Amino acid sequence: MIVTGGAGFIGTNFVRHALKNTDYRVVVLDKLTYAGSLLNLKQVENHERYAFEQADIADLDAIEDIYQRYQPDRVVNFAAETHVDRSIDGPEPFVRTNLVGTWVMLEAARRYLRDKNEDEASAFRLLHVSTDEVYGDLDETGLFHETTPYAPSSPYSASKAGADHMVHAYHRTYGLNTIITNCSNNYGPFQFPEKLIPVVILNALEAKDLRIYGDGSNIRDWLYVEDHCSGILKALENGRPGRNYNIGGRNERTNLQIIDRICKLLEKHRPAAENPAMQARGLKQYADLKTFVEDRPGHDLRYAIDADRIREELGWEPKHNFDSGIEHTVKWYLDNLDWCKDIQEEKNYNRERLGTGK
Ligand code: NAD
Ligand code: TYD
Does residue 84 line the site of ligand 2, with CB under 6 A? Predict the structure, then answer.
């Protein structure tokens, strides 16, 4: 199995999940951009069924060579530029990796399967990991279904939507056995600290402002990363080629609710009253750090997923509820501050505000 983007947040969680729950040899193919690091794969680097290849999914020659050398019967495409804010500041790598890169993964698969017999070609699966953001946003009511028309808002979601269309085209035109999963916002261990949950945890610990875009009423539907990984594996093994599967756990929260919950959990596990950084700012509780800032341009209002298809067709169920998942996540960051420090140093990243488009 080839796992592109396996050195990123969801990819590294999926690699562990696949090594634990299957017999596949897992080859991580990753460019190691700012979001991907071998620090995320340390725990599996000596596993006998694990291998690593540094490559760019937009490089057709390199990808063809990797298909030839590893002869995969499964490909899971996580590799992507994933941060909406960065896509607002600079869309180009999003077009290149998400759109061109996904095309390359499909085209390399098509060429590789030309030399295979019918049985091998029909056993092959390429699962493309996508997002619910391709559907655009919702107002107060309603859910995203697999039949909801695509209406992406940001350069990120537009590049993911384009990639999904290309995946469908390769299924329909060439009969390539593809599957797409569209998942809601993930949280959990190893998420790069540019995304809402880890950036709030780390800024709070250092008594830095907790930036709330707009009025904090935007809603996301949160899923613990391990539940996303189990859904992907189910869809990969039992999903129907040509189909999309939505994945989500019906955990809708406003951004303000998320930030308040993180503050409460930090008070429980690392009280502000005992935190020298908070004392130095003369602040008593983490919630005092909440700061409303200029909104993100084009900010999607609400995401909410109907995951009935993957539940009913494939028997997938999330195992984690939001309360335990978020507490586990906060504790993971507290227990892994060395990882947080190392990854930010390696990537020269200091949690600055991104995505104003200026
Ligand atoms: P991430 O940003 O943490 O990791 C992305 C990984 O892809 C990194 O390891 C990076 O080095 C690699 N990569 C980037 N460009 C590459 C290229 N050109 N060639 C090879 N490797 C490259 O992302 P994530 O949050 O783990 O998301 C993984 C996938 O899941 C993405 O496709 C994303 O769109 C999708 N997704 C994410 C979420 C979420 O909440 N994080 C939700 C739904 C879907
Ligand atoms: P993010 O984690 O970037 O994911 P996405 O944009 O893909 O949903 O952001 C989640 C929500 O949190 C989104 O509505 C933007 C908001 N947000 C903040 O209010 N402050 C922040 O510092 C960040 C990073 C995000």
Answer: yes
